[in-house]
Design brief:
Elements: H1 2-11, H2 15-48, H3 53-74, H4 84-119
Length: about 120
């Protein structure tokens, strides 16, 4: 927003008009971010609610697989040919997956309230 803020300062000589434009840009950016997260949450919810077993279960299966690899490594069982970087990548995927689940569940609860606020 720093570059955009400087651009608004040059475009709008009036400080109040520049601040109003910056605020509007911030609102639009936040709304776009919110819509992106809401779309992602909808995809996960739709998959989880699917009547097809594979569609509903593929994400948990992948997460359990990566978790199993990391836990096995902690107990001294290393997969053949798997480097330290690959284990770290698996760990990052687990963190991302768990974070996505927590964020998805949180978004599911707060999205309706935020959507109403943006409509006003």
């Amino acid at each position: 927003m720093d570059i955009a803020g400087k651009a608004f300062d040059r475009i709008f000589p009036d400080k109040q008009a520049a601040d109003a434009a910056k605020l509007e840009m911030l609102k639009l950016t936040q709304q776009a971010d919110f819509e992106e997260w809401a779309t992602k949450a909808d995809i996960v919810k739709t998959e989880a609610a699917s009547s097809n077993w594979l569609t509903a279960s593929w994400r948990p299966i992948v997460m359990l697989t990566f978790t199993g690899l990391v836990v096995a490594r902690w107990f001294g069982f290393a997969a053949e040919g798997m480097s330290e970087d690959e284990y770290m990548m698996a760990w990052k995927l687990i963190q991302l997956g768990l974070g996505g689940y927590v964020i998805g569940r949180s978004a599911e609860k707060i999205v309706p309230g935020i959507a109403q606020a943006f409509k006003k």
